Amino acid sequence: MITVNENYLKLQASYLFSDIAKRVAAFQESNPDKPIIKLGIGDVTEPLPPACIQAFHAAVDEMANDASFRGYGPEQGYDFLREAVALNEYAARGITIQPDEIFISDGAKCDTGNIQELFSTDTRIAVPDPVYPVYVDTNVMAGRTGAFTDGRYAGLTYLECTAENHYVPDTPSEPVDLIYLCFPNNPTGATATREQLAEWVNYAQQNKALILFDAAYEAFITDDSLPHSIYEIEGAREVAIEFRSFSKTAGFTGTRCALTVVPKECKGYTASGDAQSIHALWNRRHTTKFNGVSYPVQRAAEAVYSRNGQEQVRALIDGYMTNAAVIRDRMSALGYDLAGGENSPYVWIRTGTDSWEFFDRILNDASVVTTPGSGFGACGQGYIRISAFNSHANVTEGMDRISAALA
Ligand code: MLT
User: Which of 17, 51, 150, 357 is the most buried (most CB within 10 A)?
Assistant: First the structure.
Protein backbone atom coordinates (compact mmCIF):
# COMPACT_ATOMS: atom_id res chain seq x y z
CA MET A 1 0.00 0.00 0.00
CA ILE A 2 1.33 3.39 -0.92
CA THR A 3 0.93 5.71 2.04
CA VAL A 4 0.98 9.47 1.68
CA ASN A 5 2.92 12.09 3.61
CA GLU A 6 0.14 12.94 6.05
CA ASN A 7 1.78 16.24 6.87
CA TYR A 8 0.28 17.46 3.60
CA LEU A 9 -3.17 16.87 5.09
CA LYS A 10 -2.45 19.54 7.71
CA LEU A 11 -2.09 22.20 4.99
CA GLN A 12 -4.81 24.67 4.17
CA ALA A 13 -6.92 23.53 1.19
CA SER A 14 -4.93 25.57 -1.33
CA TYR A 15 -2.07 27.99 -1.63
CA LEU A 16 -3.17 31.60 -1.00
CA PHE A 17 -2.58 32.87 -4.52
CA SER A 18 -4.29 29.84 -6.08
CA ASP A 19 -7.27 30.53 -3.84
CA ILE A 20 -7.41 34.15 -4.99
CA ALA A 21 -7.02 33.13 -8.64
CA LYS A 22 -10.04 30.82 -8.30
CA ARG A 23 -12.21 33.56 -6.81
CA VAL A 24 -11.11 35.99 -9.52
CA ALA A 25 -11.86 33.42 -12.27
CA ALA A 26 -15.36 32.86 -10.82
CA PHE A 27 -15.97 36.63 -10.69
CA GLN A 28 -14.75 37.03 -14.26
CA GLU A 29 -17.03 34.26 -15.47
CA SER A 30 -20.13 35.81 -13.96
CA ASN A 31 -19.05 39.35 -14.94
CA PRO A 32 -17.48 38.96 -18.39
CA ASP A 33 -18.10 42.64 -19.21
CA LYS A 34 -16.12 43.98 -16.22
CA PRO A 35 -12.41 44.36 -16.93
CA ILE A 36 -10.39 43.35 -13.89
CA ILE A 37 -7.31 45.18 -12.63
CA LYS A 38 -4.90 42.95 -10.74
CA LEU A 39 -3.13 44.50 -7.75
CA GLY A 40 -3.01 41.19 -5.92
CA ILE A 41 -0.11 38.81 -6.46
CA GLY A 42 3.21 40.60 -6.80
CA ASP A 43 3.68 39.80 -10.45
CA VAL A 44 5.44 42.29 -12.67
CA THR A 45 3.71 43.60 -15.79
CA GLU A 46 6.39 45.62 -17.58
CA PRO A 47 8.52 43.90 -20.25
CA LEU A 48 12.08 42.76 -19.57
CA PRO A 49 14.67 45.56 -19.84
CA PRO A 50 15.97 45.89 -23.43
CA ALA A 51 19.54 45.10 -22.27
CA CYS A 52 18.31 41.74 -20.92
CA ILE A 53 16.35 40.98 -24.09
CA GLN A 54 19.40 41.70 -26.22
CA ALA A 55 21.60 39.39 -24.12
CA PHE A 56 18.86 36.75 -24.09
CA HIS A 57 18.63 36.80 -27.92
CA ALA A 58 22.40 36.67 -28.35
CA ALA A 59 22.62 33.66 -26.00
CA VAL A 60 19.85 31.85 -27.87
CA ASP A 61 21.83 32.41 -31.07
CA GLU A 62 24.90 30.89 -29.40
CA MET A 63 22.82 27.77 -28.72
CA ALA A 64 22.18 27.51 -32.48
CA ASN A 65 25.85 26.98 -33.36
CA ASP A 66 28.10 23.95 -32.96
CA ALA A 67 30.95 26.08 -31.72
CA SER A 68 29.05 27.99 -29.06
CA PHE A 69 26.35 25.49 -28.09
CA ARG A 70 26.19 24.60 -24.38
CA GLY A 71 24.68 21.56 -22.71
CA TYR A 72 24.48 21.17 -18.93
CA GLY A 73 25.93 24.15 -17.16
CA PRO A 74 27.32 24.22 -13.62
CA GLU A 75 24.45 23.50 -11.21
CA GLN A 76 25.49 26.45 -9.04
CA GLY A 77 25.36 28.89 -11.94
CA TYR A 78 27.85 30.16 -14.50
CA ASP A 79 30.86 32.03 -13.15
CA PHE A 80 30.02 35.09 -15.26
CA LEU A 81 26.76 35.58 -13.33
CA ARG A 82 28.08 34.64 -9.90
CA GLU A 83 30.96 37.07 -10.36
CA ALA A 84 28.65 39.84 -11.57
CA VAL A 85 26.41 39.37 -8.53
CA ALA A 86 29.32 39.32 -6.08
CA LEU A 87 30.69 42.52 -7.60
CA ASN A 88 27.52 44.52 -8.16
CA GLU A 89 25.25 43.41 -5.32
CA TYR A 90 27.86 42.96 -2.60
CA ALA A 91 31.35 44.40 -3.27
CA ALA A 92 29.68 47.63 -4.44
CA ARG A 93 28.23 47.96 -0.92
CA GLY A 94 31.49 47.05 0.78
CA ILE A 95 30.37 43.47 1.52
CA THR A 96 32.66 40.54 0.85
CA ILE A 97 30.81 37.64 -0.73
CA GLN A 98 32.82 35.23 -2.87
CA PRO A 99 31.30 34.15 -6.20
CA ASP A 100 31.37 30.52 -5.03
CA GLU A 101 29.16 31.45 -2.08
CA ILE A 102 26.41 32.38 -4.57
CA PHE A 103 24.05 29.71 -5.88
CA ILE A 104 22.01 30.70 -8.93
CA SER A 105 18.53 29.19 -9.02
CA ASP A 106 15.14 29.46 -10.65
CA GLY A 107 13.47 31.40 -7.85
CA ALA A 108 13.54 32.65 -4.29
CA LYS A 109 10.24 30.86 -3.73
CA CYS A 110 11.92 27.54 -4.55
CA ASP A 111 15.04 28.31 -2.52
CA THR A 112 13.24 29.57 0.59
CA GLY A 113 11.02 26.49 0.29
CA ASN A 114 13.81 23.98 -0.30
CA ILE A 115 16.37 25.20 2.23
CA GLN A 116 14.53 23.62 5.18
CA GLU A 117 15.53 20.17 3.86
CA LEU A 118 18.96 20.75 5.37
CA PHE A 119 17.66 20.87 8.92
CA SER A 120 16.45 18.20 11.30
CA THR A 121 12.74 17.54 11.82
CA ASP A 122 12.89 18.77 15.41
CA THR A 123 14.31 22.17 14.40
CA ARG A 124 12.44 24.93 16.23
CA ILE A 125 11.18 27.38 13.63
CA ALA A 126 10.28 31.06 14.02
CA VAL A 127 8.27 32.80 11.32
CA PRO A 128 6.92 36.32 11.17
CA ASP A 129 3.15 36.76 11.33
CA PRO A 130 1.99 37.91 8.77
CA VAL A 131 4.26 35.72 6.66
CA TYR A 132 5.00 34.76 3.07
CA PRO A 133 3.12 31.41 3.09
CA VAL A 134 5.99 29.41 1.53
CA TYR A 135 8.09 29.57 4.72
CA VAL A 136 5.31 27.98 6.73
CA ASP A 137 3.85 25.49 4.25
CA THR A 138 7.19 23.89 3.42
CA ASN A 139 7.86 23.26 7.11
CA VAL A 140 4.36 21.82 7.51
CA MET A 141 5.08 19.45 4.60
CA ALA A 142 8.33 18.41 6.28
CA GLY A 143 6.53 17.54 9.51
CA ARG A 144 7.87 20.32 11.72
CA THR A 145 4.43 21.43 12.93
CA GLY A 146 1.33 20.08 14.58
CA ALA A 147 -2.23 20.74 13.49
CA PHE A 148 -3.65 24.04 12.22
CA THR A 149 -6.06 25.59 14.71
CA ASP A 150 -7.33 29.15 15.01
CA GLY A 151 -5.16 30.33 12.15
CA ARG A 152 -1.88 28.90 13.45
CA TYR A 153 0.15 25.70 13.36
CA ALA A 154 1.09 24.11 16.65
CA GLY A 155 4.83 23.91 17.16
CA LEU A 156 5.83 27.10 15.29
CA THR A 157 6.97 30.26 17.02
CA TYR A 158 5.08 33.17 15.47
CA LEU A 159 6.83 36.53 15.58
CA GLU A 160 4.01 39.02 15.70
CA CYS A 161 4.38 41.98 13.37
CA THR A 162 1.84 44.64 14.26
CA ALA A 163 1.33 48.38 13.93
CA GLU A 164 2.69 48.67 17.51
CA ASN A 165 6.12 47.27 16.59
CA HIS A 166 6.00 48.86 13.12
CA TYR A 167 5.82 45.34 11.70
CA VAL A 168 9.37 44.50 12.79
CA PRO A 169 9.32 41.61 15.26
CA ASP A 170 11.30 41.43 18.46
CA THR A 171 13.58 38.46 19.11
CA PRO A 172 11.60 35.71 20.86
CA SER A 173 11.86 34.98 24.55
CA GLU A 174 12.09 31.23 23.91
CA PRO A 175 15.02 29.70 22.03
CA VAL A 176 14.48 28.94 18.33
CA ASP A 177 16.89 27.44 15.81
CA LEU A 178 15.79 28.67 12.40
CA ILE A 179 14.43 32.16 11.85
CA TYR A 180 12.76 33.46 8.70
CA LEU A 181 13.05 37.21 8.19
CA CYS A 182 12.03 39.20 5.12
CA PHE A 183 12.94 42.86 4.58
CA PRO A 184 11.59 44.88 2.87
CA ASN A 185 8.77 42.73 4.08
CA ASN A 186 6.26 40.80 2.11
CA PRO A 187 3.40 41.46 2.84
CA THR A 188 3.66 44.53 5.12
CA GLY A 189 6.27 46.50 3.19
CA ALA A 190 8.05 47.24 6.49
CA THR A 191 11.82 47.64 6.61
CA ALA A 192 14.34 46.89 9.34
CA THR A 193 17.13 49.20 10.44
CA ARG A 194 20.75 48.11 10.92
CA GLU A 195 20.24 48.13 14.69
CA GLN A 196 17.20 45.87 14.43
CA LEU A 197 19.00 43.39 12.18
CA ALA A 198 22.01 43.50 14.51
CA GLU A 199 19.75 42.33 17.35
CA TRP A 200 18.71 39.35 15.27
CA VAL A 201 22.28 38.51 14.33
CA ASN A 202 23.21 38.72 17.99
CA TYR A 203 20.29 36.45 18.92
CA ALA A 204 21.37 33.90 16.30
CA GLN A 205 24.95 33.98 17.59
CA GLN A 206 23.83 33.50 21.20
CA ASN A 207 21.50 30.62 20.33
CA LYS A 208 23.56 28.92 17.57
CA ALA A 209 20.57 29.66 15.37
CA LEU A 210 20.42 30.43 11.66
CA ILE A 211 18.64 33.34 9.97
CA LEU A 212 17.05 32.85 6.55
CA PHE A 213 16.99 36.41 5.23
CA ASP A 214 14.70 36.97 2.27
CA ALA A 215 15.87 40.14 0.52
CA ALA A 216 13.87 39.65 -2.68
CA TYR A 217 12.63 43.26 -2.48
CA GLU A 218 15.88 45.03 -1.50
CA ALA A 219 16.04 46.93 -4.80
CA PHE A 220 12.93 48.86 -3.78
CA ILE A 221 14.69 50.49 -0.81
CA THR A 222 14.83 54.25 -1.33
CA ASP A 223 15.99 55.27 2.16
CA ASP A 224 19.81 55.27 2.09
CA SER A 225 20.08 54.59 5.80
CA LEU A 226 18.46 51.14 5.47
CA PRO A 227 20.51 47.98 4.96
CA HIS A 228 20.02 46.13 1.67
CA SER A 229 21.70 42.96 2.88
CA ILE A 230 21.97 41.16 6.20
CA TYR A 231 25.71 40.95 5.50
CA GLU A 232 25.94 44.68 6.20
CA ILE A 233 25.70 43.54 9.83
CA GLU A 234 28.88 42.37 11.52
CA GLY A 235 28.87 38.66 12.27
CA ALA A 236 26.05 37.84 9.84
CA ARG A 237 28.29 35.68 7.65
CA GLU A 238 28.34 33.05 10.42
CA VAL A 239 24.60 32.97 11.05
CA ALA A 240 22.66 34.03 7.95
CA ILE A 241 21.71 32.84 4.48
CA GLU A 242 20.36 35.47 2.08
CA PHE A 243 17.90 35.07 -0.78
CA ARG A 244 17.73 37.46 -3.72
CA SER A 245 15.74 37.45 -6.92
CA PHE A 246 15.72 39.01 -10.38
CA SER A 247 11.92 38.56 -10.45
CA LYS A 248 10.67 41.83 -9.05
CA THR A 249 13.84 43.81 -9.69
CA ALA A 250 14.24 43.13 -13.39
CA GLY A 251 10.92 41.60 -14.40
CA PHE A 252 12.00 37.94 -14.32
CA THR A 253 8.87 36.42 -12.73
CA GLY A 254 8.18 34.52 -15.95
CA THR A 255 11.83 34.12 -16.96
CA ARG A 256 13.00 32.70 -13.60
CA CYS A 257 16.32 33.61 -12.07
CA ALA A 258 17.30 34.12 -8.44
CA LEU A 259 20.17 33.43 -6.09
CA THR A 260 20.97 32.26 -2.61
CA VAL A 261 24.06 33.33 -0.71
CA VAL A 262 25.51 30.79 1.69
CA PRO A 263 28.72 32.08 3.28
CA LYS A 264 31.33 29.42 4.02
CA GLU A 265 31.32 30.36 7.73
CA CYS A 266 27.64 29.37 8.14
CA LYS A 267 27.37 26.38 10.45
CA GLY A 268 24.70 23.91 11.49
CA TYR A 269 25.25 21.21 14.10
CA THR A 270 24.78 17.47 14.46
CA ALA A 271 22.77 16.20 17.44
CA SER A 272 26.07 15.67 19.24
CA GLY A 273 27.12 19.26 18.56
CA ASP A 274 29.63 18.84 15.72
CA ALA A 275 29.70 21.87 13.43
CA GLN A 276 28.83 21.23 9.79
CA SER A 277 29.21 23.55 6.80
CA ILE A 278 25.80 24.68 5.54
CA HIS A 279 27.51 25.70 2.29
CA ALA A 280 28.67 22.11 1.73
CA LEU A 281 25.21 20.71 2.50
CA TRP A 282 23.42 23.17 0.22
CA ASN A 283 25.94 22.50 -2.54
CA ARG A 284 25.29 18.76 -2.12
CA ARG A 285 21.54 19.26 -2.32
CA HIS A 286 21.70 21.70 -5.22
CA THR A 287 23.95 19.48 -7.34
CA THR A 288 21.73 16.46 -6.70
CA LYS A 289 18.34 18.03 -7.25
CA PHE A 290 18.95 20.92 -9.65
CA ASN A 291 20.56 21.19 -13.06
CA GLY A 292 21.03 24.91 -13.27
CA VAL A 293 19.17 27.85 -14.77
CA SER A 294 19.29 27.92 -18.56
CA TYR A 295 22.26 29.63 -20.18
CA PRO A 296 20.23 32.32 -22.02
CA VAL A 297 18.40 33.24 -18.82
CA GLN A 298 21.69 33.62 -16.95
CA ARG A 299 23.06 35.81 -19.75
CA ALA A 300 19.88 37.92 -19.55
CA ALA A 301 20.36 38.24 -15.77
CA GLU A 302 24.02 39.21 -16.21
CA ALA A 303 22.89 42.05 -18.49
CA VAL A 304 21.08 43.61 -15.53
CA TYR A 305 24.55 44.74 -14.42
CA SER A 306 25.53 46.40 -17.70
CA ARG A 307 25.34 50.18 -17.70
CA ASN A 308 22.18 50.16 -19.83
CA GLY A 309 20.74 47.34 -17.77
CA GLN A 310 21.22 49.29 -14.56
CA GLU A 311 19.52 52.37 -15.99
CA GLN A 312 16.62 50.33 -17.36
CA VAL A 313 16.11 48.39 -14.15
CA ARG A 314 16.19 51.63 -12.17
CA ALA A 315 13.46 53.02 -14.44
CA LEU A 316 11.31 49.91 -13.92
CA ILE A 317 11.64 50.10 -10.15
CA ASP A 318 11.00 53.86 -10.12
CA GLY A 319 7.84 53.26 -12.13
CA TYR A 320 6.54 50.71 -9.65
CA MET A 321 7.47 52.96 -6.74
CA THR A 322 5.52 55.83 -8.33
CA ASN A 323 2.56 53.44 -8.34
CA ALA A 324 3.16 52.59 -4.68
CA ALA A 325 3.02 56.31 -3.85
CA VAL A 326 -0.32 56.62 -5.68
CA ILE A 327 -1.72 53.68 -3.69
CA ARG A 328 -0.49 55.16 -0.42
CA ASP A 329 -1.87 58.63 -1.19
CA ARG A 330 -5.26 57.41 -2.31
CA MET A 331 -5.82 55.00 0.59
CA SER A 332 -4.60 57.62 3.10
CA ALA A 333 -6.99 60.15 1.57
CA LEU A 334 -9.80 57.65 2.16
CA GLY A 335 -8.80 57.61 5.83
CA TYR A 336 -7.07 54.23 6.05
CA ASP A 337 -4.04 53.58 8.24
CA LEU A 338 -1.31 51.97 6.23
CA ALA A 339 2.31 50.87 6.10
CA GLY A 340 4.77 50.04 3.33
CA GLY A 341 4.95 51.46 -0.16
CA GLU A 342 7.94 53.69 0.64
CA ASN A 343 10.76 51.17 0.39
CA SER A 344 8.63 48.38 -0.93
CA PRO A 345 6.17 47.69 -3.75
CA TYR A 346 3.54 46.53 -1.24
CA VAL A 347 1.12 48.71 0.71
CA TRP A 348 -0.40 47.15 3.83
CA ILE A 349 -3.76 48.64 4.73
CA ARG A 350 -5.77 48.30 7.91
CA THR A 351 -9.35 47.69 6.77
CA GLY A 352 -11.13 47.51 10.10
CA THR A 353 -13.18 44.59 8.75
CA ASP A 354 -12.57 40.95 7.88
CA SER A 355 -9.85 40.72 5.22
CA TRP A 356 -11.73 38.41 2.83
CA GLU A 357 -14.89 40.51 3.21
CA PHE A 358 -12.93 43.61 2.21
CA PHE A 359 -11.23 41.71 -0.63
CA ASP A 360 -14.67 40.62 -1.96
CA ARG A 361 -16.05 44.13 -1.64
CA ILE A 362 -13.25 45.61 -3.73
CA LEU A 363 -13.47 42.77 -6.25
CA ASN A 364 -17.25 43.05 -6.60
CA ASP A 365 -17.60 46.84 -6.47
CA ALA A 366 -14.39 47.95 -8.20
CA SER A 367 -13.28 44.86 -10.17
CA VAL A 368 -9.86 45.22 -8.56
CA VAL A 369 -7.93 42.27 -7.12
CA THR A 370 -6.01 42.78 -3.87
CA THR A 371 -4.65 40.24 -1.38
CA PRO A 372 -6.49 39.59 1.89
CA GLY A 373 -4.13 40.05 4.83
CA SER A 374 -5.50 37.06 6.73
CA GLY A 375 -4.07 34.84 3.97
CA PHE A 376 -0.64 35.72 5.37
CA GLY A 377 -1.47 34.74 8.95
CA ALA A 378 -3.51 35.58 12.02
CA CYS A 379 -1.90 39.02 12.44
CA GLY A 380 -2.97 39.87 8.89
CA GLN A 381 -6.64 39.65 9.79
CA GLY A 382 -8.25 43.06 9.28
CA TYR A 383 -5.71 44.08 6.60
CA ILE A 384 -5.35 43.88 2.84
CA ARG A 385 -2.22 44.18 0.72
CA ILE A 386 -2.24 46.24 -2.48
CA SER A 387 0.61 45.60 -4.89
CA ALA A 388 2.21 48.32 -7.02
CA PHE A 389 3.06 45.83 -9.76
CA ASN A 390 0.99 46.96 -12.72
CA SER A 391 1.14 49.71 -15.32
CA HIS A 392 0.78 53.27 -14.05
CA ALA A 393 -2.49 53.62 -16.00
CA ASN A 394 -3.94 50.49 -14.40
CA VAL A 395 -2.88 51.44 -10.90
CA THR A 396 -4.36 54.92 -11.29
CA GLU A 397 -7.59 53.54 -12.69
CA GLY A 398 -7.69 50.80 -10.06
CA MET A 399 -7.32 53.37 -7.29
CA ASP A 400 -10.02 55.58 -8.90
CA ARG A 401 -12.37 52.60 -8.84
CA ILE A 402 -11.46 51.66 -5.28
CA SER A 403 -11.96 55.27 -4.15
CA ALA A 404 -15.40 55.36 -5.76
CA ALA A 405 -16.36 52.00 -4.26
CA LEU A 406 -15.22 52.88 -0.75
CA ALA A 407 -16.26 56.54 -0.66
C1 MLT B 1 3.47 37.77 -3.64
O2 MLT B 1 2.57 38.34 -4.24
O3 MLT B 1 3.50 37.69 -2.41
C4 MLT B 1 4.55 37.19 -4.45
O5 MLT B 1 4.36 37.44 -5.78
C6 MLT B 1 4.66 35.78 -4.26
C7 MLT B 1 5.92 35.25 -4.85
O8 MLT B 1 6.86 35.98 -5.16
O9 MLT B 1 5.97 34.04 -4.94
Answer: 51
What gap in Å lies between CA 284 and CA 103, rounded to an integer?
12
- Identify residue 366 by its one-letter amino acid code: A
* C-alpha to C-alpha distance for 129 and 251, rounded to whole angstroms: 27
Taking the centre of ligand 1 as the mean of its atom positions, its distance from the CA of residue 67, in whole angstroms, is 39
41 Cβ below 6 A of ligand 1: yes
- For residue 47, the Cα-to-chain-centroid distance in whole angstroms is 20
For the whole model, what pTM was predicted? 0.97
Domains of the chain: 6-47+308-406 (3.90.1150.10), 53-305 (3.40.640.10)
DSSP strand pairing (267-269 vs 125-129): unpaired
Rounded to the nearest integer, the mean pLDDT of the chain is 97
User: Quick check: 12 pLDDT over 90?
Assistant: no
User: Residue 56 Cα, ligand 1 centroid: separation in angstroms?
Assistant: 24
Cβ of 109 below 6 Å from ligand 1: yes
SS (H, E, C) 150-186: CCEECCCEEEECCCCCCCCCCCCCCCCCEEEEECCCC
